[in-house]
Amino acid sequence: MNNTAWREKFLLNEDLNFLLTNRIPRVAATRFMGWYSRIRSPVLTRLSIAVWRLFTDLDLSEAREQRFDSLHGCFTRALKPGLRPFDPDPATVCSPSDAIVGACGPIEGTDVLQAKGFPYPLRELLGSDAMAQRMQGGRYTTLRLTSAMYHRFHAPHSLAVDRVTYISGDTWNVNPIALKRVQRLFCKNERAVIECRLSALGDVPLILVPVAAVLVASIRLHWLDVLLHLRWPGPNVIPCAATLAKGEEMGWFEHGSTIIVLTPPGLDLAPGIQSGVRIQAGQALLR
User: Which of 48, 98, 162, 279 has the lowest CB atom count within 10 Å?
Assistant: First the structure.
């Protein structure tokens, strides 16, 4: 059996996949991976990448650097210049990252879906009733980054960042198998709630929620002087005064996870955007 066939067999075996990625000491495994990924050893890094490729379709051909002295350097790799142009149309809100579109649709009341039949309350995700009420009647879009994807995320439009709320939590896997089995999963995991205003569209509010996962519990935001991770207790609410141009890099995950995009009424999904579609950073997401 070749690597591709073996990998597909593993991924399609839902019970085995769920057992090996969730029924482990998730937080301990995540902290170990954080330590291991920073070991500076080109030989160990090459071996680790070879093992990584047994489980994913990792493609490093777009990476700016082709040699890495640590797994962390590979996880958070930059791309060659010009590979993710952002749609310049001012009426377009772009995807902040490479991703597979997950559950998406209108925000009915203040509940949204993580998977079919698995709703969760926005107030629990955001840690705020007021924020959830502001998004009522708007739209949510779930963007899932696989471990093999480009892991940096960018400003989907010209925006101002007013506040970041860091919420510590668990590190469940966020793949489709877990989303169909674990109720309110996004509300359980570590996450950062980034409150923004689209300055070029009359200060329309937009909320980005990067959600961490197993082996992925550190979130870097460039305008903050701290790395958000499980060992950092807070303060939970961090006032900000950052402005970013459309397409400007906002930060990265240490591995790969999920970004939930929340917008108020008036923005609809761009043509072709639906659950299951692969999208790249810079492509039209909402209009």
Answer: 162
List 154, 157, 229, 255, catalytic entry? 154
Residue ranges per domain, the chain?
Answer: 3-75, 93-286
8, pLDDT greater than 70: no
Alpha-carbon distance of 99 to 113, in angstroms, equals: 18
Q: Pick from 273, 20, 249, 266: which is nearest to 137 by CA?
A: 266
pLDDT in tens, 235-258: 588 899 999 999 999 998 766 689
Task: Tell me the pLDDT tens digit for each residue of 55-92.
Answer: 788 899 999 999 999 988 898 899 999 999 999 999 99
257 catalytic? Reply is yes
Q: How far is CA 52 from CA 4, 71, 147, 198, in A?
A: 13, 10, 9, 38
Asked about 225 being catalytic, the answer comes back as: no
Q: Which of 98, 151, 157, 229 is catalytic?
A: 98
Closest C-alpha among 149, 104, 180, 161 to residue 257: 149
The reply to whether 128 belongs to the active site is: no
